[in-house]
DNA sequence: GCAATATTTAGAAATTTGTCTAAATATCTA
DNA sequence: TAGATATTTAGACAAATTTCTAAATATTGC
């Protein structure tokens, strides 16, 4: 897993909002972008960053390109975060 | 908790390395910086970002300023991350 | 108080990032 | 095939970020 790509991807609020929005289920780029006040081109850029970090998956469905969350990453992601703190190894403290 | 500050802080590899290094215990700025090939001024900048995100604490000890991990944030941090994914509420899937 | 050490602040330069417009590519439908 | 819709790519530009050097601040010990 590309740690740097992932953290970088999460650093932008628009991208986090995109991930949030995808919790509701897969969505086309246009549908997804309707919630944001930036151009499709800018959106596309954000999608690319998320994809590079392997946080989302894409599938062309006819005219549309459908985005979905890559949920398998969540575990790695959680590990990466916890790994930044002590006692994060085996069932961290405080649990 | 300032979500944006935290994610932004974690986006830089040097800052993540600093956090990692602090896992070994509290350390003065100089000691901490010895591991990196950047000037004290640049280091200081990174410290400021980490502090703003409330990820580290500082305490002056004589001439030195000692940095330590703010471990209490780990739970919030984990929550923020998991919150970006579905089924993140109660003991997510795949566990 | 003064010199030495530790760290931060200020200001500038280089790089990266987010956004835009314009153009390109892909698919659908008439 | 042509036109309409959906999305991405290319190139430019402004804003943010990382880094540097030089100077400022804080503390220790003589």
Brief overview:
The structure is a homodimer of 95-residue chains. With 95 residues, chain A is α+β, with helices and mostly antiparallel strands. Chain A is built from five helices and three strands; from the N terminus they run ααβααββα.
List the helices and strands and how they pair.
Two copies of one chain form a homodimer.
Chain A: H1 3-10, H2 13-22, E1 27-28, H3 29-33, H4 40-52, E2 56-61, E3 64-69, H5 73-82
Antiparallel strand pairs in A: 1-3, 2-3
Helix pairs in contact in A: 1-4
Chain A binds a DNA duplex (30 and 30 nucleotides) through helix 4.
Keywords (chains A, B): DNA-binding, Transcription, Transcription regulation
Pfam families (chains A, B): HTH_20
Organism (chains A, B): Fulvimonas soli
Your description of this structure?
Helices cover 48% and strands 15% of the residues of chain A. Chain A has 95 residues and is α+β, with helices and mostly antiparallel strands. Chain A has a single domain, classed as Arc Repressor Mutant, subunit A, CATH 1.10.10. In chain A, strands 1-3-2 form a three-stranded antiparallel beta sheet. The radius of gyration of chain A is 15 Å and the shape is elongated. Chain A starts with a helix and ends in a 13-residue tail after the last helix. Mean pLDDT of chain A is 88; it is low at 89-95. The interface between A and B is medium-sized, with 27 and 26 residues. The structure holds a DNA duplex (30 and 30 nucleotides).
């Amino acid at each position: 897993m590309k740690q740097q790509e992932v953290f970088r991807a999460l650093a932008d609020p628009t991208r986090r909002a995109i991930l949030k929005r995808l919790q509701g289920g897969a969505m086309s780029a246009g549908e997804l972008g309707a919630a944001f006040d930036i151009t499709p081109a800018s959106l596309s850029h954000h999608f690319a960053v998320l994809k590079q970090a392997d946080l989302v998956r894409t599938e062309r469905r006819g005219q549309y390109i459908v985005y979905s969350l890559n949920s398998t990453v969540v575990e790695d992601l959680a590990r990466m975060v916890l790994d930044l703190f002590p006692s994060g190894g085996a069932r961290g403290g405080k649990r």
